[in-house]
Amino acid sequence: MDSFSSFFDSSNRNGWSYESLKNFRQISPVVQTHLKKVYLTLCCALVASAVGVCLDLAWHIGGLLTMMGCMGCIFWVFSVPQYEEKKRLSILMGSSLLQGASIGPLIDLVLQVDPSILISAFVGTAIAFACFSVAAMLAKRREYLYLGGLLSSGLSILFWLQLASSIFGGSAAMFKFELYFGLLLFVGYMVVDTQKIIESAHLGDLDYVKHALTLFSDFVAVFVRILVILLKNSSEKEKKKKEEELKCFTGTLVKYFCTNL
Q1: What angle do CA 204, 135, 198 make, to 5 degrees?
Q2: For residue 66, what are the CA distances in angstroms to 1, 41, 46, 99?
Q3: Which long-range contacts (CB under 8 A, 24 or more apart) does 204-210 make?
Q4: Does residue 146 sit in helix, strand or coil?
Q5: How far apart are CA 218 and CA 64, in angstroms?
Q6: Which residues cross the membrane (predicted)?
């Protein structure tokens, strides 16, 4: 947090400057170069995922098979030696494309309800991702790594809750809790995974493909949950609007019959 306080102190004295945002003194040049490659690969993975979404919208290929293919590609990335860089990148792009196709049906539903929800969800996820990533970079090294254990415990709780809901049936309140609790967990993972990547790079682990895959998984997990939350809120608003219109119409009919009888 000292880096945050120094950032705000400098902005109070000298005004906001672009140079103050580039104050990553705790990160060595080698690690900074590694992070650039990680985020560039992440952007390419997001583009591949968008292509997968378009393929699903055109031919409806998304489903269980694409999800299983995505998981298979993820395991394949980890099994290929690190020196086979091009092959691992190709597998990562394939995994991202299949991931996009897997969430294609959800995005198709959102487009039918309100296309602006999709833009809001993506922009919101991108802003959250950028803010929490910068926070992790500006913070002291290893400052947020202790949260990893808490997040792992929370993820385990979420898994057992979802398993119980699938077996015994879940309520609307349980679904809402799982949705918001999962969003909180994966936002936390954005911070923790960013610091893990930085720390691993300091220790010599410069596997940018693996690190980009980790951040891509966090991004998609947050994006899907924000998308569902916005879709749910939009449906509830539409339902309330229809109920109010029905009440207004019923009231008008009652007044009409009362005045004409």
Answers
A1: 5
A2: 42, 21, 16, 7
A3: 206/30, 206/34, 207/82, 208/34, 208/37, 208/38, 208/41, 209/41, 209/77, 209/82, 209/85, 209/88, 209/89, 209/92, 210/77, 210/78
A4: coil
A5: 20
A6: 64-83, 89-111, 118-138, 144-161, 212-231
Q: Give the single-character DSSP code of 26.
A: T
Residue 81 phi, psi dihedral angles, 5° rounding: -60, 150
Identify the residue whose tokens are 């951040």.
215
Task: Please tell me which residue, 227 or 13, carries the higher pLDDT value.
Answer: 227
Cα–Cα distance measured from residue 121 to residue 156, given in angstroms and rounded to the nearest whole number: 26
What are the Cα distances from residue 30, in Å, to 21, 201, 204, 242? 19, 8, 10, 58
Q: How far apart are the first and last CA of the chain?
A: 74
Segments in the chain forming alpha helices (H): 2-14, 18-21, 29-59, 64-79, 85-102, 104-113, 115-138, 147-168, 172-202, 208-260
Please name which of 100, 125, 116 lies closest in space to residue 222, comparing C-alpha atoms.
125
Q: What is the pLDDT of residues 132-151, one digit of tens each?
A: 999 998 888 778 888 888 99
pTM for this one? 0.85
C-beta of residue 98 within 8 angstroms of C-beta of residue 90? no
Is residue 186 helix, strand or coil?
helix
